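A common beginner's mistake is to predict each chain separately and then try to dock the pieces by hand. The better habit, illustrated here, is to supply every component at once so that their relative placement is modeled jointly.
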Amino acid sequence: MAERLRMGLIGGGPGSFIGPVHRMAAELDGQIALVAGAFSSDAARSALAGEIYGIDPRRAYPDVAAMLTAEAARADPIDFVAITTPNCHHLSAATQSLAAGFAVVSDKPATATLEEARTLRDAVAAAGRPYALTYTYTGYPLVREARERVRRGAIGAVRKVVVEYPQGWLAGPAEHADNRQAVWRVDPTQAGPGGCIGDIGVHAFNLAEFVTGLSVDRLLADLGTVVPGRRLDDDVSVLLRFEGGARGVLMASQISIGELNGLRIRVYGETGSLDWHQEQPNSLSLHFSDGWTEVLRTGDAGLGADARAATRLPGGHPEGYLEAFANLYRDVATVLRGGTAPALQGVHQGVRGMAFIDTAVRASREQSGWVAFDGR
Amino acid sequence: MAERLRMGLIGGGPGSFIGPVHRMAAELDGQIALVAGAFSSDAARSALAGEIYGIDPRRAYPDVAAMLTAEAARADPIDFVAITTPNCHHLSAATQSLAAGFAVVSDKPATATLEEARTLRDAVAAAGRPYALTYTYTGYPLVREARERVRRGAIGAVRKVVVEYPQGWLAGPAEHADNRQAVWRVDPTQAGPGGCIGDIGVHAFNLAEFVTGLSVDRLLADLGTVVPGRRLDDDVSVLLRFEGGARGVLMASQISIGELNGLRIRVYGETGSLDWHQEQPNSLSLHFSDGWTEVLRTGDAGLGADARAATRLPGGHPEGYLEAFANLYRDVATVLRGGTAPALQGVHQGVRGMAFIDTAVRASREQSGWVAFDGR
Amino acid sequence: MAERLRMGLIGGGPGSFIGPVHRMAAELDGQIALVAGAFSSDAARSALAGEIYGIDPRRAYPDVAAMLTAEAARADPIDFVAITTPNCHHLSAATQSLAAGFAVVSDKPATATLEEARTLRDAVAAAGRPYALTYTYTGYPLVREARERVRRGAIGAVRKVVVEYPQGWLAGPAEHADNRQAVWRVDPTQAGPGGCIGDIGVHAFNLAEFVTGLSVDRLLADLGTVVPGRRLDDDVSVLLRFEGGARGVLMASQISIGELNGLRIRVYGETGSLDWHQEQPNSLSLHFSDGWTEVLRTGDAGLGADARAATRLPGGHPEGYLEAFANLYRDVATVLRGGTAPALQGVHQGVRGMAFIDTAVRASREQSGWVAFDGR
Amino acid sequence: MAERLRMGLIGGGPGSFIGPVHRMAAELDGQIALVAGAFSSDAARSALAGEIYGIDPRRAYPDVAAMLTAEAARADPIDFVAITTPNCHHLSAATQSLAAGFAVVSDKPATATLEEARTLRDAVAAAGRPYALTYTYTGYPLVREARERVRRGAIGAVRKVVVEYPQGWLAGPAEHADNRQAVWRVDPTQAGPGGCIGDIGVHAFNLAEFVTGLSVDRLLADLGTVVPGRRLDDDVSVLLRFEGGARGVLMASQISIGELNGLRIRVYGETGSLDWHQEQPNSLSLHFSDGWTEVLRTGDAGLGADARAATRLPGGHPEGYLEAFANLYRDVATVLRGGTAPALQGVHQGVRGMAFIDTAVRASREQSGWVAFDGR
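With all components supplied together, the output reads:
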């Protein structure tokens, strides 16, 4: 194995959920090491985070610019940054990093607004550096298998997609109960115009396009704010139409008490269907029109190359969220080392995701019925 | 036990699926006996059906009018009719029977059109005889428990309902493959204006109102015809708004390969939620906002009176579709003997169901976005 | 359909669980009618039961002998008796009925002791009348499918069987809490020498032999009495060896809190395996040595003739315990009308079941290790 | 966070399954780093492994002795070794390492024979250095919760334990198909006297004692070799008796086609029961004698301190095998830094495990019926 790639983290300070997840995922395969970070806009907190992560104290920087400058000057600079801040900082962090010559891994959604996403796309194109977006669920072996099966025609032409993403953790006013994860997600100045739709709806949207290989071209949205006083949506229903005419229903909700992280996708085709649920990620059900039902399990001998490459353990040894996330970083490492990783999501999917949020928020607000979806 | 109530069946001739189901369900508790029938508009087939059902050959009639006249003249006439024909005959069979003084049990939907349903409602009112509609799924013990829990406030005010009813049996052109069940269901002259929505969507609609105790007051519909050449819808997505503001998503589909009879309802309230699936009808999951998950099972000691009364066996002895159906007939017997059966669905729900079909079909065709729902 | 066969019930008086089950199951298909009974040894209670069942009051008899005599003298006598008493009355009821020329359906186990079972076998042989034993679980469509698949070699030679039957309802001293079902089952004078093993262990034993087509030829038993003061076993572990060398583990328990009626069988062969659980009776999992997993569901087109014949509804309409039970009565009707019903269990299986109880009780008491099993 | 602890790996060369697992698990929390290894007895292969693991080439040693000597001489020596060789090398690797002053983490079982385990115990006592055994499944959050619930009396006194561990990967002669994992596991000179029982039965045994807090004091074993020509057992059934009288059934099998890694434990107490399955590790079912069923999920607010401390992600983000394994290493780090980790399994459990294998193998071979279990 070549020397470990060096990662600089942006965000992920003390109390962050997703920062440590990025570190664990990035380092899991021994190909990447977290060596630097601008963990917080508060210099003391950034230093504290650096200590917690166990990095060289000199590489815990007070802000992004400082990190980029200092790292660029080192003999052993970081190879890429990973952005894990609230959405409102994504564009700035990404463009600065790209401009400084660093590759970028960014948490989703790409930016806070669609306009920003288009700006980012141009910046990526101009910089010519890799940019990857961590749509985590595309990293699961059986999600990749599902995509491959659809592509190979195992279920025939896609007719209908049902993708849902229920959660319950924002069913009460968590943002007033000092829940750090909640506060910024329901604040339009930090999250952008989408609440639930930007936080998890966009995952569902991406998963639907990823698995089916189809692009949405029209939608109809009904976004609700259920918890009184909240400023962004917390419950989302969207009807979809894909190119070629396939129908879709996308549901996302953060007020669904009892649901934890219930992302599920069902795809119905002309000759078969498939069903995958994130909370039981190691099985994938396939049904065929002759009444035959097959269950695939992570590690099965009959899986395709993509699924096998994304699997670390023998079947029956559950692989979970961190392993899926680590598969994205494995792809990142492959790309940084000059290879290709076709499943890795990039700025193209970033713009589409932001267009989804933007279009749905506007269509719902204006009750405009079916609207065209322009994901460019 | 008093003498068995006597049932006359309308429809349910040779090859019928639902006719024998009505007989088994009606007779299960030993309170009702099938004794007569106008099983087919073909006299020979009606006679054959009578023979198969094992009734007195003289009581296998060639048509409804003949049955009603002959039975009315007997010393031991039927106590009620059960209508199991295609939808287009429901109104006529019901009004004739009511006019002849007989109580009516009818398969759903109430009629072929909304206008017919309103006519039927007036006829029921005028006749003063019991009229019951077999929304089968309201007969499951745990559906009744779900309703009772919601009513008692176990999950707080309802915020969101997701009700889905996927099937796959019409994913291909079954109507051209000599499938009797398919032929009339996709024929507007027999089924009315709704295909999938009238066959199963209306079950989902009724279940949502039954469990929540709330009435839909607005909806937005997207009905599709996926199988080429089919004349009615076979895939349905409807967004709902209930009185008081709760949101809903209703999905029904008959092109969902691999799905058998997947009716499922999830209700999310302010303080809890519940989840029930028809194919695993003997468990009901409850979640509460403190993170507590409870699973109720048919036969559990802690269930309410309605659920217990609808249960025949100790827990762990699966009760299924026929037992649920039989619970409706048990209610019918109770009503016919002068008692009350609050869970029994009648012409009021029949009109609402037809209004649902009618409104959704028109709203979808006209792409009218959100429309008011008038269930009167 | 021919005239209904007439059934006389022995036992099944007020408060009985299994009596009404037999009636519902017997009558479900419209081929059999309950017309007479010796429901209780208390004449008043027998009359009351007759009223509840809705039969002619003159045919509610005070005892078995009276019923047999009176029915034999009628122009429309019963065609068979169904025995649903505590075990201690099985032999007497069966032999009297056979001697009077009636066919016999009996609840399991066949008798109270092995010696009685052998006496019964001789009586059946001498009478030349049909005798059927209601091993209920053999009536499920997918149990019959499992048997057929094994027989056809779908999983290769059987190597290992795990059959378990946990229940929890006797985890406390229910027999002192006025639980009628409990009282006789834990009383050796009514139940015979086996408690849990006779009540449910024998079902597990029968199911293992039924599905595999193999006969047990050795066993090792560990029976426990967990609840203080109880006189019979309430927790059972038995190691099995089948002819040809396949191994088995049989567990039955009535002190397993939370378990309702958890009969489950797993059969592992040289090239595949199968798994069926009574509480989810409408699916059957098959696994093959190449890593392939298939799930069969009741009603699937690919099922064999036996499973299809035992199915009343389209797939996805759950069929449960009563329907399985009714399949046994369907077989009984077939036999009484001169046909054959190879899946129907008879006195041969009755003797084997009693030999299983007897052998295991003795082997456990004497801690004799492995003992030969003689099921004749 | 303090500086990372330094790990030296023994075994885990190219093609190893468990070596990389130890590395990923050890490094997951950023507290430990793999820096050295004697990966293979073949020097070239050891060097290759070091390269794959990305360590300093000088620290990839040709044998254990070389590593211990060289590391002891460094300013930054390893803090502990992790042993991942076939069983036959465990004792030697552990005692050498202890003698050289290093702490030891060892894969299970502790050694190849009971006698060796007792020798090891003395060596651990003499060295006064930490020794930990990676009984992986004790690292799952909900296994720790189960243990805590039992200890707190949530299910009352334990009456019955059913622990099973079915796998299917050795259902055919994999050892003749060049399967490295298979070859040594079925070879008594490398694995010791137990095949399946030593590979996975011992996990089941440990889990039963871990969760219940009870010690086995008698057992009865039936070990089979199903695949022709195999020299060790591949199918295991053991009846257990715990101190205080609770009963147990332990099943382990490697010929159960379709089973992947199906470790499951059910514990039945006087007032409740619990059920956990390794392939769905993030839920734990609890049942209580009043009919109440509760489902706990990883991340639930109501879980105890041990489970919470073993959880890295919010509920609904599946944590799997690697995370469970990493919890053992987190405990190791705690101990090496002077803390305590009561759940960490050590040489005491190592001796008990070897005694279990030894006793069961002998009891089965000699068909000695119930035998006393001496785990010292």
